[in-house]
Amino acid sequence: MDASDVVDIGSPHPKFVYGLNTRFSYKGFDLSILASGVYGNKIYNRNLLNFSRLDFGVSEPANQLASAYRNRWIDAEHPGDGKTPRITWTDQTGFNSQGSDLYIEDGSYFRIKTITLGYNLPKNVISKFQISNLRVFATLTNFFTFTDYSWYDPDLGDTNDSSSGTTSIGVDNATYPSSKMWQCGLNISF
User: Fold this and answer.
1) Could you report the per-residue pLDDT of 155-179, keeping only the tens digit for each?
2) CB contact at 8 A, 21 and 33
3) How do strand 29-39 and strand 158-161 relate by DSSP bridges?
């Protein structure tokens, strides 16, 4: 291996970031949508590396992805998917646990961050109860993400490597995904 083997496998920085914020109203109903996304970044998915290591030594975890086991190289007649390495017993060389472009994925995504649907009850109905305004609403947060990324959440932000104290941009090392939430409520004015 020499300098001629070096190739650009992508950047963790998106080529562009975009967003949308809109609100519609009709006959007492209102709908607001907040969405955002990124395009053109790469993610190094360490989860795939960690959970597809096929070296079953005494100190190695045995709970691996089933796809890594099914797609592994066995021999020339059973090459698997052509990407997943063979199973070894305690990988002394570390070949099966090295970083590889096999774990680089497209990090582009489009996420609908919030959708809120509300309804303002008519004034002639609520005025009987000494209420000037009554609105009921429901909100979904982080329910819809469109991406080709294979793990939980492509929106990694900056992750902190606790062992070295460095910030890792574009590395998913079991980053906790964005929470999905739903809310409903009332806005009342007297």
Assistant:
1) 986 655 555 555 678 888 888 889 9
2) yes
3) unpaired
Model confidence pTM above 0.90: no
As a whole number of angstroms, the distance between CA 123 and CA 185 comes to: 19
* Burial class (CB within 10 angstroms; exposed 0-12, middle 13-18, buried 19+) of 74: exposed
Q: What amino acid occupies position 68?
A: A
Which residues are CB-neighbours of 168 under 8 A, at least 6 positions away? 158, 159, 160, 161
132-156 burial by CB neighbour count: b if 16+ within 10 A, else e?
Answer: eebbebebbbbeebebebebebbbb
Instruction: Delimit the domains of the chain by residue range.
Output: 3-53+91-189
**What letter represents residue 172's amino acid?**
D
